[in-house]
Amino acid sequence: MSLFSLLINGGLSAVGAVICYRLILTYIPIFIQRKMYGNDQSKTSNDPVPEPMGVICAAVYLIVMFIFIPVPFFEWVGSETEFPYAKLLAILSGLISISTAILLGFADDMLDLRWRHKLLFPTLSSLPLLMVYYVSGNSTTVMIPGLLRHLIHPFFDLPISVNISFVYYIFMGMVIVFCTNAINILAGVNGLESGQSLVISISVIIFNVVQLIRVDSQYWHHLISLYFLLPFTACTAILFHFNKYPSRVFVGDTFCYWSGMTLAVVSILGHFSKTLMVFFIPQTFNFIYSLPQLFHFVPCPRHRMPKYDGKSDTVSMSKAIFKKSELKSLGKLSLFIFNLVGLLEKREFEKDGEIWIEINNLTIINLVLKFSGPMHESRLNQVLMGIQISCSILAFFIRFYLASLFYDV
Ligand code: UD1
Ligand code: MG
């Protein structure tokens, strides 16, 4: 029966992809007519690029998911066995969180929301999902690494696993808030937002399939993840086709929040939120590296995307310039650390009797450009995709090889 559901889900995903393709072509002129577009800041032409096209794919995705909802439950129609309400609830709560993320993204595209809203809204929209997780009696137990148990053994007898209860819920809430924002702040290069999401979702699909084949006790959890991810991947692949260099459409914040939330939701429903974090290594690094600018310890310009040079048709590191006196003590500390470990390009100069500081904007994109020098935008996206794919390979190595050394998995 589950194979039948997966086949239907795959078929609906393929239909969704075709509909996305046609709708995007139909809506490109409509977006421009309605003045819903952005300007590609790394091009000499100032042609309008329809934005946020992610809303079209997100709508198709929701329709596919709504049509799919009854499919996994066909076998209970007219059956005497008890209906699996917890499974239906899990799908519905996931869809609530994803729908609210799409709403938040669209609001951000239209209104340019403040950071506190971008943090508060996903926190609250995670509640239905966490509530269902709680009432379904899902586990909040984490394994203790065998190595740690052996090291501590002479002093304490540590158990194999420990129930961290509400701390686990805080962790899952943080995963949701992090994922919804992480893709949006690793952006500004043609094809990057859709490309990274595609690599992560395909990696998670491979992980789910491997787990389905290897471990049968978590069967439903990996299956539900595939139900959500196959249509997402199909719609995102089409979006990537239009968003890759040279972008014919921009995905918008709608796509970034939808994508982040979908990945977070499947990891929670599929019980692999810790593994998901390993697939998010580039985003986690980018987030930590960005923290001084996100929290304004260091001044943050509106856009941190690379700087375009029309003559050579290349992009290079973009810089933030500010008075030394504007720097807060946490800002000074973070710049000192980044400088120490070679992650910062910094220049101090004097102008009008004041000391000014020039640093590269703190994103992984600018960091790549710091080490490589200027390059063509499409090449930059290929390098960033290469990093993302390498991290997925590393994640598989960590999850399937290293984890088995440390845990009894
Ligand atoms: C986030 C980043 C910002 C980055 C921006 C790029 C943080 C805190 N914010 O802001 O630094 O500059 O994404 O999306 O890190 N654009 C391009 N080429 C692209 C993609 C986007 O030129 O390939 C430009 C277009 O003008 C587009 C605009 O970026 O209209 C979209 O920016 P938006 O998504 O509103 O920026 P934020 O998500 O707020
Ligand atoms: Mg954005």
From TrEMBL:
Regarding the membrane, this protein is recorded as:
Multi-pass membrane protein
What GO molecular function terms would the record report?
Answer: glycosyltransferase activity; metal ion binding; UDP-N-acetylglucosamine-dolichyl-phosphate N-acetylglucosaminephosphotransferase activity
Question: What family name appears in the similarity comment?
Answer: Belongs to the glycosyltransferase 4 family.
Query: Which reaction is catalysed here?
Result: a di-trans,poly-cis-dolichyl phosphate + UDP-N-acetyl-alpha-D-glucosamine = an N-acetyl-alpha-D-glucosaminyl-diphospho-di-trans,poly-cis-dolichol + UMP
Superkingdom of the organism of origin? Eukaryota
GO terms, biological process: dolichol-linked oligosaccharide biosynthetic process
Q: Which organism is it from?
A: Caenorhabditis angaria
- Keyword match Protease: no
Function, as annotated: UDP-N-acetylglucosamine--dolichyl-phosphate N-acetylglucosaminephosphotransferase that operates in the biosynthetic pathway of dolichol-linked oligosaccharides, the glycan precursors employed in protein asparagine (N)-glycosylation. The assembly of dolichol-linked oligosaccharides begins on the cytosolic side of the endoplasmic reticulum membrane and finishes in its lumen. The sequential addition of sugars to dolichol pyrophosphate produces dolichol-linked oligosaccharides containing fourteen sugars, including two GlcNAcs, nine mannoses and three glucoses.
| Name used for this protein in its record | UDP-N-acetylglucosamine--dolichyl-phosphate N-acetylglucosaminephosphotransferase
The regions listed as transmembrane in this protein's record are 6-32, 53-73, 85-107, 166-187, 194-213, 219-242, 254-272, 278-298, 383-402
- What are its cofactors? Mg(2+)
* Pathway(s): Protein modification; protein glycosylation
A Pfam match: Glycos_transf_4
> Where does the record say this protein resides?
Endoplasmic reticulum membrane
Tell me the InterPro entries matching this sequence. Answer: Glycosyl_transferase_4, GPT
Q: What class of enzyme is it?
A: transferase
Has UniProt tagged this entry with the keyword Nucleus?
no
